């Protein structure tokens, strides 16, 4: 399931975050790449322990905690501290799959990586290329979103970032250990939650009250069956 989450950051939050990033020192992105992806990864990254990265990461995490659509789609158990990358002309990231397990830096805490996310920070008009290409059974999806919008997709997907040919592409990216491990199960819960929300808004306390209660019970009882805590 590939889901677009619009306006994770508003214009004010975005401007503040970008000014932090512009002032920061960047390093070669290969520092967090595994054996498989290092040869195809060509970008810049903020050092994970840099104060700018931590502060910007906290801004993103606070925004995620308030975002109902993200929570419904990812059902997060743990969120890896967001990282930031930058692509200049000639830079890109070839086909790869994200690591299955990651240790949170400075801790012994390891996450199983179920969901990958990219939060676009540059306006699409400001750069050419730089599309996030995500493969699933229907083919390859090209994703290039407005600044402040985010895409979440299964960490099991092959994906790449097309070479940037003009301008600068800035993004935050991070991973999620979900309460629900299987993408198909998360998709089902996401659909059900979305239907319940729409019906609740439309029907209120009318005749749909009883079936809405039944659907809500199904949602929670499926989550109870699948949630890994
Ligand atoms: Ni990746």
How does this model look, in words?
With 229 residues, this protein is an alpha+beta fold. It is globular, with a radius of gyration of 19 Å. A hairpin with a 2-residue loop joins β12 and β13 (139-143). The chain folds into two domains: 3-178, Jelly Rolls, CATH 2.60.120; 183-226, DNA Excision Repair, Uvrb, Chain A (Irregular), CATH 4.10.860. The protein is 32% helix and 31% strand. Nickel (II) ion binds next to loops. The site of nickel (II) ion has 3 residues, from loops.
Keywords:
single chain; 229 residues; alpha+beta; Jelly Rolls; DNA Excision Repair, Uvrb, Chain A; 2 domains; five-stranded antiparallel sheet; 5 helices; binds nickel (II) ion
How do the strands and helices of this protein lay out in sequence?
Blueprint: E1 3-5, H1 11-22, E2 27-28, E3 41-42, E4 44-45, H2 51-65, H3 68-74, E5 76-79, E6 83-87, E7 92-96, E8 101-103, E9 110-112, E10 115-120, E11 127-129, E12 132-136, E13 139-143, E14 150-154, E15 159-161, E16 164-167, E17 169-178, H4 183-203, H5 209-226
Helix pairs in contact: 1-2, 4-5
Bound molecules: nickel (II) ion.
């Amino acid at each position: 399931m590939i889901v677009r989450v619009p306006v994770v950051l508003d214009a004010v939050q975005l401007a503040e975050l970008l000014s932090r990033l512009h002032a920061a020192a960047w390093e070669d992105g290969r520092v967090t790449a595994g054996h498989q992806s290092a040869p195809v990864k060509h970008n810049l990254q903020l050092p994970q322990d840099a104060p700018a990265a931590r502060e910007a990461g906290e801004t993103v995490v606070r925004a995620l905690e308030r975002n109902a659509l993200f929570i419904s789609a990812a059902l997060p158990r743990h969120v890896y501290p967001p990282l930031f990358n930058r692509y200049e002309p000639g830079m890109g990231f070839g086909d790869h799959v994200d690591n299955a397990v990651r240790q949170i830096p400075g801790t012994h805490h390891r996450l199983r990586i179920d969901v990958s996310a990219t939060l676009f920070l540059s306006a699409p008009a400001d750069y050419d290329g730089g599309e996030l290409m995500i493969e699933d059974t229907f083919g390859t999806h090209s994703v290039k979103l407005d600044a402040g919008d985010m895409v979440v997709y299964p960490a099991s997907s092959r994906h790449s970032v097309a070479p940037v040919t003009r301008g600068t592409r800035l993004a935050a990216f991070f991973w999620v250990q979900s309460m629900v491990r299987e993408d198909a199960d998360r998709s089902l819960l996401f659909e059900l939650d979305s239907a319940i929300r729409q019906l609740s808004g439309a029907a209120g306390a009318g005749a749909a009250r009883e079936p809405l209660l039944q659907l809500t019970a199904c949602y929670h009882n499926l989550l109870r069956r699948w949630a890994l805590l």
